[in-house]
Amino acid sequence: MAEYDVSNYARKTIIELDESYLMQTLNLISGKWKMNVLMLLDFAPSGSLRYGDIKYILRDVIAPRVLVQQLRELECSGLVNRVVYPTSPIKVEYSLSELGKAIIPVMDEMYHFGFIYKESQKKASSQSSSDIDIFK
């Protein structure tokens, strides 16, 4: 009977997690290149970058079609502002919205955790390697 209670509790917790603020946040920045684009806009000296500049900087890692898709999704979610200037040729600039600026510290903490995790994995790997060497 206790296992059944734990199972129901776990199921309820998973459903709540799926609908939680945490999952909403992860969904906003999930996507292979969204965090890269957000960080790039955060690092921009003027606070904004033209589409052509973003495309040039990321030219070796992301296809233009995928970049446009990621930028549109970030704009729709309210993390990025898009400004179109009616010039010839048309000039489009992207910048972080206030909401986008608010998520940068979260991404910084995720980076920090990733660094700590990777270092711990290296240590664990080297310890297991040294254990093997002892037995030789």
Task: Describe what is shown at a glance.
By secondary structure, the chain is mainly α. The protein has helices at residues 2-18, 21-29, 34-43, 51-57, 64-76, 98-134, and strands at 48-50, 80-85, 91-96.
Descriptive account of the structure:
The chain is mainly alpha-helical and 136 residues long. It has six helices and three strands, in the order αααβααββα. The chain has helices at 2-18, 21-29, 34-43, 51-57, 64-76, 98-134, and strands at 48-50, 80-85, 91-96. Strands 1-3-2 form a three-stranded antiparallel sheet. Strand 2 (80-85) and strand 3 (91-96) form a beta hairpin. Helix 3 packs across helix 6 (98-134). The longest helix has 37 residues, at 98-134. It is globular and about 65 Å long. The N and C termini lie far apart (50 Å). Mean pLDDT is 85; it is low at 132-136.
